[in-house]
Amino acid sequence: MKVALVCDWLTNVGGAEKVLLRIHKLYPDAPIYTSKYDPKGIDWFKDADVRTGFLQKFPTKLRRILGPLRQRYFSKLDLSEYDLVISVTGAEAKAVRVPNGIHICYCHVPTQYYWQMYKDYIKNPGFGVLNPLVRLFFRLMVRPLRWADLKAARRPDYFVTISEYAKDAIKKYYDREAIIIHPPVEIEDFKVKKKKQKPVEKYAENSYIVTSRQVNWKRVDLAIRACEMTQRNLIVIGEGPEHKKLVKLAKGSKFIKFLPLMKKEKLATYLGVAKGYLFPSLEPFGIAPVEALAAGCPVIAYGVGGARDYVKDGKNGILFETQSAKALAEAILKFEKMKFDREKIAKTVDGFGVERFDKEILDFVKKVGKKSGKNK
C-alpha cells in the first residue's frame, strides 16, 4: 500500500514523537505531514520526508493557540493518492480526509484543551502576561472548536489508543470505539545489567526521581512539595518552560537536586538505584514511568489516567487518588513501609516493548486492509 503518516507537530521530544518514530521505522518511505517542524527541537527524523504547509512560518511558541488554523490545514490536505494514512495525534491531525484509502488514527487522547483539561488550560494557559487574552479567546471559541473537533473525529476509519483511560475518553467525548495498542517503550535499554552498570553519585541511592518535560501540567511541583514535606531527597531530571519556577519553588532546599536531561544509559543507572520514581501528573499513558519500572525502580503514581495500565498497587509501586502534594507525601510514607523486589518489578513491564508494538500495529493494518480490500 502507498502509505502516509500525519502528526500534529514535530517541535520537541516526547512520548507522541516516540510513537511516530517507531511507525516511521515500520514505513520508512512514507512521507510525514505535519503543521510545524523544528529539526533543532527534535532531530529524530532527518532521514524522513517531512512535509509542512503555511503554519511552518509561525513561531513554535504560538503552537497552543493555533488550533483553529491547524484544523483548517489538516482538513485541506490532499491525501487522495494514499491507500493508508496513519495519524498519530492528540489534537487536530485526525481531521485529515482520506477519500481513497484507510485512515487509522492512533489517538493518544481527545484534544485535551477542548475536553478533559479545558478548565486546567483556562486556569493557566502558560503564556505569562498574555494569559488573560488567551483565556478570553478560549472561552469565546471553545464551543465552535469542540464542534470542529467532533467533526474531525468522524473522519478516521479506525481508532487505536494507548490505554484504558484514553479508550474511555474517546468513547465519552467522540462516541467512537478504539482498540488499545500500548506505546512502544525501549524497555531493554533500561534493564539494569549489574556487571556493566556504571557507578552513580551516592546520593541517588537515597533519592526519589522525577523525569519529565517541565511544563505546568506535568505537576513536578507536587513532587518537590511532597519531598519537602517529608524531608526526602528528590532528583528532578529534565528541562522546560517551568524550570525556573521549579527552581524558585525549591528555594535552594538541601533535599532537592536538579539535573539536566541525560542519555538513557545514564538515566537507567540512576533509576536502577533510586528509592522510587514519582509520577504525579495526569497522563493518558506515560512512557517515563514504564522505563523506570523496566530499570526495577518502583513507581508512586497518581491513580487517575494511564498509570493504571502498568502500576500494580503493592506489586511494582503504589497509586494515590488525589492530585495534591499532601496525598503524594502520604503515599511516599506508605511506600516506605513496603518491600519490593526489583527483579520482579522489571518483569512487570515486559509486555510493553518495541517488538510487541511493531507486531500489533502491523497485524492491525493487515486486518483492516483485508476488510477493505486494500491489502496489497
- Terminal-residue CA separation: 6 Å
**Domain count:** 2
The CATH first-level class of the largest domain comes to Alpha Beta
Count of helical segments?
A: 12
Shape: globular
**Strands side by side in the biggest sheet:** 3-2-1-4-5-6-7
CATH superfamily of the largest domain: Glycogen Phosphorylase B
CATH architecture of the largest domain: 3-Layer(aba) Sandwich
Strand content: 5-15%
CATH level-3 fold name of the largest domain: Rossmann fold
Number of strands: 13
Largest sheet: 7 strands, parallel
Order of helices and strands: EHEEHEEHHEHEEHEHEHEHEEHHH
Rg, rounded, reads: 21 Å
Walk me through what this model shows:
With 376 residues, this protein is of the alpha/beta class. The chain has two domains: 3-184 and 354-372, Glycogen Phosphorylase B (Rossmann fold, 3-Layer(aba) Sandwich), CATH 3.40.50.2000; 187-350, Rossmann fold. Helix content is 35%, strand content 14%. The protein has twelve helices and 13 strands. It has helices at residues 15-26, 67-75, 118-123, 131-152, 164-174, 220-230, 243-250, 264-273, 287-294, 325-335, 342-347, 354-372, and strands at residues 3-7, 32-33, 50-51, 84-89, 102-107, 158-161, 178-180, 207-211, 233-237, 256-259, 276-279, 299-302, 317-320. A seven-stranded parallel β-sheet has the order 3-2-1-4-5-6-7, with helices on both faces. A six-stranded parallel β-sheet has the order 10-9-8-11-12-13, sandwiched between helices. Helix 6 (220-230) links the parallel strand 8 and strand 9. Helix 2 packs parallel to helix 4 (131-152) and helix 6 crosses helix 10 (325-335). The longest helix is centred in the middle third of the chain and has 22 residues, at 131-152. The protein is globular, with a radius of gyration of 21 Å. 44% of the residues are buried.
